[in-house]
Design a protein that fits this description.
heterodimer; A: alpha+beta; Uridine Diphospho-n-acetylenolpyruvylglucosamine Reductase, domain 2; Uridine Diphospho-n-acetylenolpyruvylglucosamine Reductase, domain 3; Enolase-like, domain 1; 3 domains; 5-stranded antiparallel sheet; 4-stranded antiparallel sheet; B: alpha+beta; Ubiquitin-like (UB roll); DNA polymerase, domain 1; Alpha-D-Glucose-1,6-Bisphosphate, Chain A, domain 4; 8-stranded mixed sheet; 31% helix; 26% strand
Chain lengths: 276, 394
């Protein structure tokens, strides 16, 4: 249970980190919180020649409110988002999601950028950030680009991130005062990866209605028709049949148990948003 | 070897360490601070919990080299800590330990819970402590001990520090619900397209112990033209991301497929035999390969069938596969299917590009290399194995 040998470098800025990765010709990995990479290294399931520690790069470490959006640096930890309370008052869904991730010891080290880049289908951030219409800012030798979070994750452990790119920040829109949201996940044990998860965001002022299911075999899936129906009609549109049909159409590969679990989590997440 | 300087239990510590040396090994083997226990050694059991810059962290997945400049505090560093003294007394009184192996980690996590959640009830204590495992199943005693310390502190009146902590830890509550305000949403950003799920092609199931994947795609040319292309072993292989052919005849091929799964890379080297039935427009590819680094072995039996569909060709593929070594324990089959869907779709895109006259394969996504990213397959196996083996969680 000891990692294979690797070299270690801790660059001070994003540019240097990108160079360090590029110079290693595909043999390097970024290390942020290391809560997924650490176990993989110890089990020798991965053997990079170089770890580029980005966890202390100042530019990746802050939460800022800019022009109606919240910019979260990629190396901000889940615990920091959980504790950010007041500065995230305009998007209280973020600390609520952060608080439910794994355990505090994991949240103290694990980062939002690391979670997105790792792209576990059952992870909380890919689902939450898709539902929140966040934008992922990535940087690489070819420069900076932004990717809508709904399109960032392609499949399990597969994202739009190129080999030589890193996530720099996540831009999350502020919710308007009339916005409602709900999150729900099924975990067999506290802190475990869920078997089913759903998140819902309704923001009348911004004309946003999102219902997403997660913890699937790949990226989170939107239930757009259901979200639209609820936005227009409210709780009347949230029937067991409507939810069941939405799940069956959006995720046809689920078996009966999976469909039931995802329907239940969707129902509960939307109910929470409707406060009904 | 890298030079690091950090604070260990209040004392400046200099060390020359290999980057791969994790903090728990440094603490135990070099500093002889053996109160930090190693259980699972991959961040699941919580026995190795220490404080790094005042926050509980797992020292088995924290590398010593990354602790440069940090403040590390182990169970031995709480000799004079009043709160830890209360916790020790409570743990003893409430039978919160039996063998004692988990206790150092439990105490460090418990101290954090008492400070951070001064109004925690039994349920919250249990949820906050769920990252620390006790195999003597002493959770009742542990929760009681922590609860008693929290109660005693509250009995002394809420200090400003306690009030601040309570406020900071109040659950997130949405503003009081107003009547539902109906609205028509603007269109959503389109999500990444999901692979289509093909209809079953073959009624007979796969052999015992084998898995089956069925997928199909449309090629933008006539079946005759596609059939010709499929005769070119090397040409077809070039459409498979990550594949390279060393040797090809009309009936056999040798080569390798490079796959990448998150941080892992593997190179499956092997050989295949090829059969073609022109009258039925069907072909069969049988082969196997192994990856020397992970010790995984794979066997595959692929049948493809071409059928005309509105002047174009539907290429249907049935792949039966058998995996041994690490991959064999793969459990979340939905992820394999989803991955296979993407793989076949990309093969189809590349083939269409080739048929269209272009020779360059289409990259997997903007900016990606064309290497087959088998993320789902091995990664998923890895995680499911890690999770299963140790009842793990993350």
């Amino acid at each position: 249970m000891k990692s294979a040998k690797f070299d270690y470098t801790r660059p001070h800025d994003v540019r240097a980190a990108i160079h360090a990765l590029a110079d290693a010709l595909g043999e390097a990995k970024f290390l942020a919180g290391g809560q997924s990479l650490g176990p993989m290294l110890n089990l020798r399931l991965t053997r990079p020649k170089l770890l580029v520690d980005v966890s202390r790069i100042e530019a990746l470490r802050s939460i800022d409110v800019v022009n109606g959006s919240i910019r979260i640096g990629a190396a901000v930890t889940h615990a920091e988002i959980e504790d950010a309370g007041a500065s995230l008052a305009r998007n209280a869904m973020l600390p609520a999601v952060a608080r439910e991730i794994a355990y505090r010891t994991i949240r103290n080290r694990g980062t939002i950028g690391g979670s997105l880049a790792h792209a576990d289908p059952a992870a909380d951030w890919p689902l939450a950030l898709a539902a929140l219409d966040a934008v992922i800012i990535v940087n690489g030798p070819a420069g900076q680009r932004s990717i809508p979070s709904a399109r960032f994750m392609l499949a399990a452990f597969t994202t739009q991130l190129a080999d030589d790119e890193m996530i720099e920040a996540i831009i999350v829109p502020e919710l308007s005062p009339s916005a409602r949201w709900g999150t729900y996940k099924f975990c067999k044990r506290t802190g475990e990866f869920p078997d089913a998860a759903a998140m819902a965001v309704f923001d009348p002022a911004r004309r946003i209605a999102r219902v997403y299911v997660g913890a699937l075999s790949g990226a989170p899936v939107p239930l757009d028709a259901l979200a639209r129906g609820i936005a227009q009609q409210g709780a009347v549109a949230l029937t067991a049949t409507a939810v069941d049909r939405a799940i069956a159409m959006a995720v046809p590969e689920l078996d009966a148990v999976g469909r039931k679990m995802h329907a239940a989590t969707t129902m509960r997440a939307v109910q929470q948003a409707l406060a009904s | 070897m890298n030079q690091v300087v950090f604070t260990l239990n209040g004392e400046r510590t200099e060390a020359l360490v290999e980057p791969r040396l994790h903090l728990a090994d440094y603490l135990r083997d070099t500093s002889r601070l053996t109160g930090t226990h190693l259980g699972c050694e991959h961040g699941v059991c919580g026995a190795c919990t220490v404080l790094i810059d005042g926050q509980p962290a797992r020292s088995c997945i924290a590398f010593t080299v990354a602790c440069d400049g940090r403040d590390v505090r182990t169970i031995e560093g709480f000799e004079d800590d009043a709160l830890m003294k209360d916790l020790r007394t409570a743990f003893t009184r409430d039978h919160a330990l039996q063998c004692g192996f988990c206790t150092p980690g439990m105490l460090i996590a418990a101290r954090d819970v008492v400070m951070r959640c001064p109004d925690a009830d039994d349920k919250r204590i249990r949820s906050e402590m769920s990252g620390n495992l006790c195999r003597c199943t002493g959770y009742l005693g542990i929760a009681n001990a922590i609860n008693s310390v929290i109660q005693a502190r509250r009995g002394g009146g809420a200090t400003p520090a306690i009030r601040t902590a309570i406020a900071a830890n109040a659950p997130v509550v949405q503003p009081l619900a107003k009547p539902w305000q109906a609205f028509t949403p603007a269109d959503a950003e389109a999500a990444a397209p999901r692979p289509a799920v093909a209809a079953p092609l073959d009624d007979a199931g796969p052999r015992e112990g084998w898995q089956r994947i069925e997928e199909s795609f449309i090629a933008n040319h006539s079946p005759g033209r596609v059939w010709e292309i499929f005769a070119d072993t090397a040409g077809v292989a070039a459409c498979l991301p990550g594949a390279s052919i060393d040797e090809a005849t009309p009936t056999s091929a040798k080569g390798r497929i490079d796959v990448r799964f998150g941080p892992m890379k593997a190179s499956f080297a092997g050989a295949t035999s090829l059969e073609r039935n022109e009258t039925r427009m069907e072909g069969r590819i049988r082969g196997g390969g192994s990856d020397s680094l992970t010790g995984s072995r794979a066997k595959a039996d692929i049948t493809y069938r071409l059928a005309s569909e509105h002047d174009r060709t539907r290429v249907s593929i049935v792949m039966d596969y058998n995996l041994q070594g690490p991959l064999a324990q793969f459990s979340r089959s939905g992820i394999v299917k989803a991955f296979a869907g993407r793989m076949v779709a990309q093969f189809g895109e590349n083939l269409n590009a080739k048929l269209g006259g272009g020779s360059a394969p289409i990259p997997l996504a903007a900016g990606r290399t064309a290497e087959l990213n088998a993320g789902n397959v091995l990664w998923q196996w890895l995680w499911s194995t890690i999770k299963k083996l140790l009842g793990l969680t993350r």
